[in-house]
Amino acid sequence: MSRGFDSGAAAPAENDIVLRVDSLSKSYPGVRAVQDVSFACRRGEVHALLGENGAGKSTLIKILSGAVERDTGSITLDGQPIAPASPIEAQRAGISTIFQELNIITSLSSVENIFLGREHVWFGTVDRRRMRREAQGLLDSIGAHIDLDTPVKRLSIAEQQLLEIAKALAVSAKIVIMDEPTAALSEAEVVLLFAVIRKLSASGVTVIYVSHRLEEIFQICDRATVLKDGRFIKTVNVDEVDRVGLVRLMVGRDFDAFFGAAAPASQNTVLDVSGLQAPGVSDVSFSINAGEVVGLAGLVGAGRTELAMALFGAAPRQHARFCLNGREISPNSPRDAIAAGIAFLPEDRKHQGLVLDLPMRFNMSLVVLGRLLRFGLLRLAEERRVVSNLARRLAISAPDLEVPVRRLSGGNQQKVVLAKWLASAFDLIILDEPTRGVDVGAKVEIYTLIHEIAKAGKAVLLISSELPEVIGVSHRILAMKNGRLVAEFGAGPTEEMVMEAIAG
C-alpha cells in the first residue's frame, strides 16, 4: 500500500481522490453531532477515522452510508456529487458499510446473502448456478475460504464479515466502511481480516477503518483523520505520527497522563490462590496485595477468562485454596463470591454484565438491592441517591437514570458495570478486558478509576489483551500460557519481554 498525504503537506493530484467530504454538518435537537467536517480519501488507501465517543464518527458514517441525511455540506465520489438518501442508494453509488452489528441473515445461505435483493434471474427463474459461481469467485478474490454449503449460522464472526465484504464487491464498491471490525475477533481472525483488507487496497478499493484499537491503526492504515466534539482536527500520515501524537490529537491531553500514576501497594495480602485446577487452568498459584494492580497477560485461549470465572465461582474447579484477607473461602457461585467480597467485570458486558433493556438505575443498583430494602420494599429515594452519586462520580453521559442501558455508548455501558460494583463492598475486583470497545477518552477515565480503587486499599486483577495497557497500569504482571502461569514481571517490562513469555 502506498502512504497517503498529510493535511499540512502538499495535497495529492485531484484524480487520486475517490471520496471528498466538504463542510459536512448534522444537528439533532440540542446537539451538533458533526460540524463543518471536511476531508478526502485516496483511491486504494486504508483511511482510519478516529476520535472519542461523541466525536462524530458514527454520525459521519451514517451520512456516508445513506442512513442519515446531512444538514449542510457536500459529498463527492469519483468527482460526481452524491446525496444518498438510503443505504441502497449509497451502495448503488459505490459506498458499502460493514457495521459492528453485521447485516447477515443466518437463515439464508452464503450465496443468498451475497446477492440478497440483486438475484440473477433467467427467464423468470433465479439462476442459482450463476450466483453460486460468482459468489465463489468473489470469495476467492479476497482469499476467503468459506464453504458455500455451510449454513451461515455456523460461520464464525470473521467468516460472516468476509461475506459482508463479498457483498460489497458484488455491487462494485469503491468505498468500504468498516466499523470496529475486529471487536469480536481472535488474533488469528484479525490476521485474516487484515490480509483481506490489503487485497482490497491493492485492487483499488478504499477502506475507511473505524477502531478504538490504536495498535491496529499502525498495522493496517495509511492515513488517519481525527475528529473531536464533532469537528475535524487533522488528517495525518500514519507513518509520520506515533501513539503519543494520535492520543494527543484525540483527547487533547499529553500521553504521559494516559495510563496515570499508580500509588505504591502495601505488603498486606488480600488474595492468595494456591493450586487452582479448573477447566482451562492448571495448577495456578499467585497473590495480590492491598492497593496492588496485578495484570494478567496471555493470548486468546491461554486460560485468563477461565481463571477469572473460577475465582468468581462462575465455573467449576477441581482443586484450589483461596484466602481473602487471611480467611479461607470456597465460592461455588457468583453469589458466594460477592458475599465473600469479590467483584467481577466480565469480558462480555452486554450478555454477562448488564440487563440491556432495563434502566441504567436498575443496572447500577442491582448488586446492592438487598441493602436498599426496608420491610421488603425498595427505598426508591435512597436508590436514586446512590445511583446519582455514582453517575456523577464516573461522569456517565446519559439523559436520565431511566434510560435503557442498551441506548448508552460502549464506554458509558462499561462505566455502568463498574458503578454497579462500586456501590458494593468488595476487597478484590477482577477486571476482564475493562476497556474493550471503548474510546480513548473513556479508557483514560477507566484507568483513573482503577488507580482510585487500588488507592482505597482494594486488590485488582486486570486481564487485558492490550500489552501497553497491562504494562502501563499494573504494579506486577503475570504471564499465562496454555492454562499455566509461565512468568512474572515487576513494573516496567517491555512489550517484547511479555510477548516472548506468552507466545513462547
Overall description:
The protein has 17 helices and 24 strands. It is of the alpha/beta class and 504 residues long. It folds into 2 domains: 14-257, Rossmann fold (3-Layer(aba) Sandwich), CATH 3.40.50; 269-503, Rossmann fold. The strands form 6 sheets. Strands 6-9-10-3-11-12 form a 6-stranded mixed beta sheet, sandwiched between helices. A 6-stranded mixed beta sheet has the order 18-21-22-15-23-24, with helices on both faces.
Query: What is the mean pLDDT?
Result: 88
Largest sheet, order of strands side by side? Answer: 6-9-10-3-11-12
Q: Looking at CATH, which topology of the largest domain would you report?
A: Rossmann fold
- The fourth-level CATH homologous superfamily of the largest domain is P-loop containing nucleotide triphosphate hydrolases
Termini separation comes to 31 Å
CATH level 1 name of the largest domain: Alpha Beta
Q: In one word, what is the shape?
A: globular
Main beta sheet strand tally, sense and closure: 6 strands, mixed
Category from helices, strands and their pairing = alpha/beta
The total number of structural domains is 2
Q: Number of helical segments?
A: 17
Report helical residue fraction. 25-40%
Strand content: 25-35%
